[in-house]
Design goal:
mainly beta; four-stranded antiparallel beta sheet; 10 strands
């Protein structure tokens, strides 16, 4: 289950009151005895807000958006809807312990 994330950004949908939410590092896990039990932390996730409810979309412990190069990941930043959805992200390198290298904006 989606338990939380940082760097949340909302993007208005196509005029129907919906919003696309994009998140950076996401905590996936469960609640055990009132505490978060973290299973993993994908680098990004998304959600759709409509009719007063936010539905999260996860790919297990994998990031929702992934580049083709397995040694990189996306940190989602912002986006826009203009006949399609465009999400702008930092392209980061693996491995990353402390201090990652940004290699591009996608």
């Amino acid at each position: 289950s989606w338990l939380g994330a940082d760097c949340a950004t909302s993007i208005p949908g196509p005029g129907n009151g919906s919003y696309l939410w994009i998140f950076q590092d996401t905590i996936v896990g469960s609640i055990v005895n009132g505490m978060r039990n973290r299973e993993c932390m994908p680098h990004n996730s998304v959600g759709i807000y409509t009719h007063g409810k936010l539905q999260h979309f996860l790919k297990g412990c994998d990031s929702f958006l992934t580049p083709l190069d397995p040694n990189r990941w996306y940190w989602t930043e912002t986006g826009v809807v203009a006949n399609d959805v465009f999400i702008f992200s930092q392209v980061m390198t693996l491995p990353c312990s402390i201090g990652c290298d940004q290699v591009a904006i996608a």
